[in-house]
User: Which sequence fits this backbone?
C-alpha cells in the first residue's frame, strides 16, 4: 500500500481519536488492577496504529511500547511523543525476555495475519507475560451479520473474520487458565427497554469483540480480577433475536387483541344500528300517535267552539261562581286546620292526664311495695316470733269470749270433742271384750248410752252434699272508694278518647 493510505482510511472509517479512547475505557476494569499489581509495568502493543491505546495506558501509569509496519501510523504516534517502532508482531514478541511485560495487546491485528501466526502470537505472549499478566486481542465480530457479511471486507488487508468461540478456544488451548470474551461498541440504547426492529438484529450485535487471557499467578494476585472476568459485556445475536421475538409475539398478541376489540366494537355498532332502526320505527309510531292526538284535539276544539260561543255571555257569572267556590274551599280548609289544632290540644291534655295518672299509679304501687316490705320485715322480726304464743293465746281467748257471748260455746265444745270421741268409740267397738264391758256399763246409764249411740250414728252417716255457693255480687263503681271511682272514670275517659 502507498504511504499514509491506511492512516487516511482509519481517519475516515475508524473514528476520531477521542472516540477511540472513550471506547478503549471499556478495558479499565482489567488494566486498573493490573496497574496496582505492577506499577509502571511494561506493555507491548502489537499493531499500535495511531497510538490511542498507547496514549491511554501512559495516562494510567504504564510504560507502553508499540510496533507497527505502516509508516503513516508510526508517524501519528511519534507526533504525540509515543514510543513506537517499525517491526512485525512476532519479531517484537520474540525479542522480549520471559516474564518481562505486564500486558500484551493486539487491536485489530489477528484478522490481518494467517491463523497459524495467530497461534504463535498467543504462545509467545504467554511466555513474555508476568504472572497475572493480560493478553488482549480485539477483532471485528462476525456474529454481527452486517459486519460479517459486509463491513469486514471494507479493509482490503483483512484476510478472514475469526469467530469469538474459535479465538477463545485457541487462547485456552495455548495455556491461559483464565480467558473471557468481551463484546464491545454496541449502541447504548440497546441496553434499555426500547423496542427493537429487524435492523437491530442484523446490525445491533456488538460490532467488535476481544478475547482476554490471563497468565496464572498466586490466588491473592488474581483475586482483584475476579469481578471483571465474571461480568457480562456487550450484546450477542441470540440476545437480540430473543428480544425481537418476544417483542414480535407481544406485538402480535396486541394486534390480535386490537382486532378482537375492533370486532367487538363492530358488533356493538351493528347492535346499536339495529336498536337504532327499531327505535326509529318506534319514533315514527310515536309521531303518528302524536299526530292522531293533535287531530283529535283539533276536532274537540271545533266541537267545543259553538259551546264556548254560547257560554261566552255567561263567562262573568261563571268566574264569579268560581271565585265563591274558591272562597268556600279556603274557609273549609281553615276550619279543618282549626279542628285539627283543637284535636291536637285535646290529645295533649289527655296525654298529660294519662301521664299524671301513670305517675299516681306508680306512687301507689311504690307505697304498696313499701307496705309489703314493712309486713315482710315485721313477720321476719324476732319480736314477732317471740310474741307468737301470746298472739295465739289471745286469739283463742277472743274466740272463746265471742262464742260465750253468742251462745256457741257448748256447741263448739261438742263439735270439737265429737271427733276424738267417735274415734275412741270406733276403736272400742273393734275389740269385742272391751265392747262387752262398755255395753254392760252403759246399760246402767241409759241417757249416756242414748247420747253416745247418737254420736256414733251421726259419725257413720254419709256427709251431706255441699251447699250451693252463694252468687258473688258483681263489683260496680258504686262499691269503690271516692278516690278509686275518680281513677276509674279518668281511665275510662282516656281509653274512649284513644279509641276515637
Assistant:
Amino acid at each position: 500500500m502507498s504511504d499514509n493510505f491506511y492512516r487516511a482510511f482509519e481517519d475516515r472509517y475508524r473514528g476520531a481519536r477521542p472516540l477511540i479512547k472513550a471506547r478503549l475505557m471499556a478495558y479499565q476494569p482489567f488494566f486498573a488492577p493490573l496497574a496496582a499489581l505492577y506499577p509502571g509495568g511494561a506493555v507491548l502493543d502489537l499493531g499500535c496504529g495511531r497510538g490511542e491505546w498507547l496514549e491511554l495506558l501512559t495516562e494510567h501509569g504504564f510504560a507502553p511500547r508499540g510496533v507497527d509496519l505502516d509508516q503513516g501510523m508510526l508517524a501519528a504516534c511519534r507526533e504525540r511523543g509515543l514510543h513506537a517502532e517499525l517491526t512485525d508482531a512476532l519479531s517484537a514478541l520474540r525479542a522480549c525476555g520471559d516474564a518481562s511485560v505486564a500486558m500484551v495487546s493486539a487491536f485489530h491485528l489477528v484478522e490481518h495475519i494467517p491463523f497459524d501466526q495467530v497461534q504463535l502470537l498467543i504462545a509467545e505472549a504467554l511466555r513474555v507475560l508476568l504472572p497475572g499478566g493480560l493478553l488482549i486481542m480485539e477483532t471485528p465480530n462476525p456474529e454481527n451479520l452486517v459486519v460479517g457479511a459486509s463491513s469486514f471486507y471494507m479493509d482490503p488487508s483483512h484476510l478472514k473474520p475469526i469467530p469469538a468461540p474459535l479465538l477463545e478456544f485457541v487462547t485456552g488451548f495455548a495455556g491461559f487458565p483464565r480467558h473471557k470474551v468481551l463484546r464491545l461498541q454496541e449502541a447504548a440504547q440497546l441496553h434499555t427497554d426500547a423496542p427493537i426492529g429487524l435492523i437491530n438484529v442484523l446490525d445491533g450485535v456488538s460490532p467488535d469483540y476481544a478475547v482476554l487471557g490471563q497468565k496464572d499467578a498466586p490466588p491473592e494476585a488474581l483475586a482483584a480480577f475476579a469481578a471483571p472476568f465474571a461480568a457480562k459485556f456487550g450484546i450477542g445475536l441470540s440476545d437480540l433475536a430473543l428480544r425481537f421475538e418476544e417483542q414480535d409475539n407481544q406485538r402480535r398478541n396486541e394486534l390480535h387483541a386490537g382486532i378482537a376489540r375492533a370486532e367487538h366494537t363492530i358488533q356493538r355498532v351493528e347492535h346499536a344500528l339495529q336498536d337504532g332502526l327499531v327505535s326509529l320505527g318506534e319514533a315514527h309510531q310515536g309521531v303518528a300517535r302524536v299526530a292522531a292526538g293533535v287531530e283529535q284535539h283539533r276536532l274537540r276544539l271545533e266541537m267545543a267552539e259553538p259551546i264556548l260561543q254560547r257560554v261566552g255571555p255567561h263567562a262573568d257569572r261563571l268566574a264569579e261562581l268560581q271565585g265563591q267556590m274558591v272562597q268556600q274551599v279556603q274557609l273549609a280548609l281553615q276550619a279543618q286546620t282549626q279542628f285539627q289544632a283543637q284535636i291536637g290540644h285535646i290529645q295533649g291534655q289527655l296525654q298529660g292526664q294519662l301521664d299524671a295518672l301513670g305517675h299516681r299509679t306508680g306512687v301507689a304501687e311504690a307505697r304498696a311495695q313499701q307496705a309489703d316490705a314493712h309486713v315482710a320485715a315485721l313477720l321476719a322480726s324476732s319480736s314477732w316470733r317471740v310474741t307468737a304464743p301470746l298472739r295465739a293465746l289471745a286469739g283463742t281467748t277472743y274466740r272463746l269470749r265471742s262464742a260465750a257471748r253468742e251462745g256457741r260455746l257448748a256447741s263448739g265444745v261438742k263439735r270439737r270433742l265429737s271427733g276424738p270421741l267417735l274415734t275412741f268409740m270406733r276403736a272400742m267397738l273393734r275389740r269385742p271384750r272391751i265392747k262387752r264391758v262398755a255395753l254392760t256399763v252403759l246399760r246402767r246409764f241409759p241417757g249416756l248410752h242414748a247420747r253416745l249411740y247418737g254420736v256414733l250414728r251421726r259419725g257413720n252417716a254419709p256427709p251431706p252434699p255441699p251447699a250451693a255457693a252463694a252468687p258473688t255480687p258483681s263489683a260496680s263503681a258504686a262499691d269503690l272508694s271516692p278516690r278509686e271511682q275518680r281513677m276509674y272514670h279518668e281511665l275510662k275517659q282516656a281509653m274512649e278518647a284513644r279509641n276515637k
